[in-house]
Every structure is written in structure tokens, then in C-alpha cells.
Amino acid sequence: DLSPVTHADRxxxxxxxxxxxxxxxxxxxxxDLPASVDSLxxxxxxxxxxxxxxxxxxxxxxQAYLDLVNGAINALNADKLDSAQFLATQANKLYSASPYGxxxxxxxxxxxxxxxEAVKYWQQAATAAAGDTSYxxxxxxxxxxxxxxxxxxxxxxxxxxxxxxxxxKQAAETYNKLLAIPGGKGxxxxx
Length: 191
Prior knowledge:
Number of strands: 2
Structural class: mainly alpha
Distance between the termini: 51 Å
Strand order of the largest sheet: 1-2
Shape: globular
Strand content: under 5%
Helix content: 55-70%
């Protein structure tokens, strides 16, 4: 069976295939497997919202997704930021309800000193993580990152005073969200 879902799950399957490998298509045409899987599942999820539970398993519970996320994290840790960005973006295509792809994209933006983009991705990761108690540690981590960015901006003398005040408010709001996550011990505010 060479359907996009089962084919994408095979270990070491390229993410961009020649279309004629899985369909009767022009020899030079390509298929972006994560985008194709996402498009197909969106159709199913729109027509049958009750199926989202099942498509989530196929989106995030398979080896293809796990390989993308783990590859993105490993590339990030090796400072291969372009590779990490590509893999995290592909992981998000497959399963945007997981916080990991957005978390990695936020970390990449942070390493590139783009705090606004880092905060945007970390907030996306926090939102995704908030929906599943198994992601509480991820939610704490990314909210801690966001709060730290805001706190550093509030402390930065080069930042205009009105922006310092706003950043301090955002830091306090984010730390309060962090402290409200069940199971936390408050140690994040001491870092």
C-alpha cells in the first residue's frame, strides 16, 4: 500500500517524492508528503469532526512525525538551524496540535536573536501544550522562555520607558500563567 499516510510512515522516506512513485503523474512532478497528508486529514476533519481524535494518532503517533521532531531537536542542538527549521516546519505540517515543532521554531528564532518571532512560536507551543496535560513540562518551558524575553526587555536600559513598562506587565502576566499550571513548584520565577 503506497497511500501517503502509510508511505510517509516508512523509515527514511523522503519528504518530497517524485509523484510517479505513488501515482500516475508526470515523471518530474513532486509530492510534498507532509503537506499532502495534512490536506487529506483536513478534509476528513472538516467533514467528520469526530474523526479528529483518530487523525491525531496518524498525524503525531507515527514514526514519520517522531523522526521529524527528533531530527529537528537534534539539528537544533547541533546548531544546524536551517535543518532544524526545515524539519520542525515539516513536523508542524503533519501535526500542528503538538507543541514540539513550534517550540523548536521558537528556539531557532531565539538563537538567531529574533525575540519577537521566538515569542510568537513559543506562545503557539504553549497554546498547543495547554490542551494536553502530558505536555505540561513543555508548556512550563516555553512560558518561562517567553517571560524571560519580556523580563529582559523590561530591564534593558536601551528600551524606551513605555516599552519597558509594557514588557514588565507581559512578563508578570506570563509568569502568572506559568505559576497557574498544575504541578509546578514556582522555581521558574527564580531563574
